């Protein structure tokens, strides 16, 4: 039988299950999609009951396999989400969507009681983002839906709730607490004072290290069970484990997030206003980060390009970098303001749009750069030759690499508890790179 670790990687859209062998090769993979349901206010949210059934049924399906010997299980999932449970572990409320508008009156009440948005943001390394500050979801529950708050015995971050389905034990973990929640005071490495004053801390499970695992018995089988990680922190683990030199990672998708674990300077007001924040590594270190909404802008401009030049939607993937197409143009205030009608061809328009993306990317990355010598790019833009060439030109003193880690979030969750299930050394070929 093949020794493996089971990983559930739960995204907003796709939910995935993997079995990795001891060399971190995928030996089984499943993917499922659930239609969203509506909360009591009619806003779209996760179907937590359907997801719970799938997690339990899937692990049960493989736990007594004749092919695989499951040694451990762990979870990665999106953050800024709480599961609210009563004293008998029944769901008290839906898994509210972090995109749901935050009640204006509740927000005003919070900041009038505990300081300005800037003051709270500075202490918690969390730009004011409404429900994306998941700690404020609990404050809203207390004052906007007090009956639900009274029934809630524990509020568990989403990744840790998924783990508790298997382990029966509920914990908090630093990667979830420390990610733009407005819960954690980075200056004193503890919960912010408002959390205690509002008795929110009494609703939160004890903190447990996501670098450790629990010994559990699941359906008659002894397992190591991780407590789950926030997906952004999980995806950072393969890099922090494999790269010895200081580096910066630009993780590209809908958001392009520049992450630097080697910059320990405190966030300033100016940086917060420019969309900087801090993540936490699974070992408790601070990852100073900046965000750029470039992936979203890219999607919008691609649609305009296809409509204007009558090309297939993904035609941009065929475009090679051509420096002669670049024009000297003023910097855009917003990337979505890019006017495709100012150009003679799809290629010319696209190349100059990516130039604008790089101008914005450098401005964003420079906020946390700190003169590291190595820059990695993963995600969609890592496959984009024009983006990568222009980024390398923007950072001539750094080594700029397109990097790829297959299923980085899931592998990160497996690597977090490597020593508890895997007797081999961590492989050194997890990351494939191409230098520009």
TrEMBL record:
Keywords from the named record: Kinase, Transferase
Domain Carbohydrate kinase FGGY N-terminal residue range list: 5-213
Residue span, Carbohydrate kinase FGGY C-terminal domain: 245-307, 373-419
GO molecular function annotation: kinase activity
This protein's record includes keyword Kinase: yes
Matches recorded under SUPFAM superfamilies: Actin-like ATPase domain
Any Pfam family the entry gives: FGGY_C_2
Family recorded in the similarity comment: Belongs to the FGGY kinase family.
Protein name, entry field: Carbohydrate kinase
Organism: Niabella ginsengisoli
């Amino acid at each position: 039988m093949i020794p493996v670790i089971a990983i559930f990687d739960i995204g907003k859209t796709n939910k995935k299950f993997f079995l990795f062998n001891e060399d971190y090769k995928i030996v089984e993979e499943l993917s499922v999609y659930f239609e969203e349901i509506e909360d009591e206010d009619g806003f779209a949210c996760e179907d937590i009951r359907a997801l719970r059934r799938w997690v339990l049924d899937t692990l049960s399906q493989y736990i007594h396999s004749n092919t695989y010997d499951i040694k451990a299980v762990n979870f990665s999932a999106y953050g800024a989400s709480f599961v609210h449970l009563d004293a008998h572990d029944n769901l008290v409320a839906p898994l509210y969507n972090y995109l749901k508008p935050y009640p204006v009156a509740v927000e005003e009440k919070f900041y009038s009681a505990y300081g300005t948005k800037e003051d709270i943001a500075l202490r918690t390394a969390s730009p004011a983002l409404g429900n994306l500050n998941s700690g404020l979801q609990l404050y809203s529950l207390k004052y906007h839906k007090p009956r639900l708050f009274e029934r809630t015995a524990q509020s568990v971050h989403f990744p840790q709730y998924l783990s508790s389905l298997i382990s029966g034990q509920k914990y908090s973990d630093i990667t979830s607490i420390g990610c733009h929640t407005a819960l954690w005071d980075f200056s004193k490495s503890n919960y912010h004072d408002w959390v205690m004053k509002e008795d929110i801390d009494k609703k939160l499970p004890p903190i447990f290290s996501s670098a450790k695992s629990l010994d559990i018995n699941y359906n008659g089988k002894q397992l190591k069970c991780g407590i789950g990680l926030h997906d952004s922190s999980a995806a950072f683990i393969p890099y922090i484990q494999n790269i010895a030199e200081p580096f910066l990672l630009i993780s590209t998708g809908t958001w392009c997030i520049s992450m630097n674990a080697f910059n320990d300077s405190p966030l300033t007001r100016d940086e917060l206003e420019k969309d900087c924040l801090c993540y936490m590594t699974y070992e408790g270190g601070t990852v100073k980060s900046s965000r750029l909404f470039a992936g979203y802008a890219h999607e919008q401009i691609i649609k305009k390009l296809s409509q204007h030049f009558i090309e297939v939607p993904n035609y941009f993937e065929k475009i090679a970098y051509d420096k002669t197409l670049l024009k000297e143009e003023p910097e855009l205030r917003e990337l979505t303001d890019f006017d495709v009608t100012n150009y003679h061809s799809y290629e010319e328009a696209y190349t100059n749009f990516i130039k604008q993306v790089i101008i914005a990317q450098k401005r964003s990355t420079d906020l946390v750069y700190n003169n590291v010598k190595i820059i990695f790019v993963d995600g969609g833009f890592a496959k984009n030759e024009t983006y990568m060439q222009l980024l390398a030109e923007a950072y001539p003193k750094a080594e700029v690499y397109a990097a790829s880690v297959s299923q980085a979030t899931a592998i990160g969750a497996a690597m977090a508890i490597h020593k508890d299930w895997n007797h081999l050394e961590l492989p050194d070929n997890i990351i494939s790179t191409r230098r520009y």
